[in-house]
Amino acid sequence: MKSSLMIALALLASGCLWAQDSETPPPADAPVVVKSGARIPLALINSVSTKHAAPGDHIYLESVFPILVDGKIVIPVGAYVSGTVTQVKRPGRVKGRGEIYIRFDNMILPNGVTRDFRARVGGIDGRAFEDLDRTEGKITSEGNKGGDARNVGEATAGGATVGAIAGAAAGHPGMGVGIGAAAGAAAGLAGVLLSRGPEAVLAKGTQLDMVLDRDLAFTPAEINFSSTNSGQRLVDTGARPVSQKDRGKDNVPRLGRRYP
Predict the structure, then answer these.
(1) Long-range contacts of residues 217-222, Cβ cutoff 8 Å, at least 24 apart
(2) What are 17-34's pLDDT values in tens digits?
(3) Is the pTM of the predicted complex or chain greater than 0.85?
(4) Which of these, 20, 102, 196, 209, could form a disulfide with 123 (CB 3.0-4.6 Å)?
């Protein structure tokens, strides 16, 4: 009986010691890791579009929301990220939409610590009119079928009006309307065939999600931001993006730039 009690006490003591060991915190100098696949919200500092961009062009962004690991801020607001335009395809004159591919290359924390990687776009501003293929990271411009039909319709109506006036002057108003409408439709169709579709435009302030392709490990000293201005940002993301039909109107708010 006594031996059984001693064994039970020994087992209880060993269990308590095991529980204490399992709750031992990691060493103070243990690295803090942002795991591969983490999404980091960014905002563009410069603008990029399929009209002006070329493969190899650089883009610049900053983080807009802090990334925490175990309650510690690892990537604060205001960290800089640079990237590269890898592919560009302008929209066609008859069909096809503008396409652009972006790769994220490195990050600079507010205290000067840097990390290199090869990350992709995993999300795009919900207010943007561009589309994102999350698998390939391809950003595609909005379609313009409605705009093409509107242009042809407006040209047809304008031609009909001019034809009616000319026909009335010649004593044949009905014939003038028909001829004018046909001419207007032809002119509108020619304009559609000669003009390109909408460009893919990511304006300054557009928000993108970066998806990490690898773990990013930092020592505690590397994520000490006590002597930095972390939390300060360069760009305003409050204005809404502009649709294709509104571009060029001066009374429409833009994300930091005027569209071409």
Answers:
(1) 217/31, 217/32, 217/33, 217/34, 218/31, 218/32, 218/33, 218/34, 218/74, 218/113, 219/29, 219/31, 219/32, 220/28, 220/29, 220/30, 220/32, 222/109, 222/111, 222/113
(2) 444 555 566 677 799 999
(3) no
(4) 209
